[in-house]
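Ticket #4471: structure output looks truncated?

Reporter: J.K.
Steps to reproduce: submitted the chain below (97 residues) through the standard prediction queue, then opened the result file.
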Amino acid sequence: MNSNQRQPKHLLPGQRVSSSVGPLIPNPDPSKKRKHCSWVYGNVIEEAANRKYKVQFDDRGIHVVASNILHLEQASASLPLSVRLPPLPLISQERGE
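Returned output as attached by the reporter:
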């Protein structure tokens, strides 16, 4: 690998990601005709091939997506307020203090 190349992303199953692979939406700028894909969030299911991952998006779609268009997100990104993540244990509780 050359010094000017970046190391490829290595994602793990269950990580929260986002990408613009959703359905086409009209361009917000009315002077342009080109449509854009909507931004969707999802979770990595498994590695499908070299630098490609199978992702289940929140709109129930499962797609094989290249790692270079996936953005790593926080675990709570784009979750509705009714869905709560379990609280993380405090460091003092892990130590047994």
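Triage note (M.O.): checked the attachment and the full token line is present. The chain has a mean pLDDT of 79.
Status: closed, working as intended.
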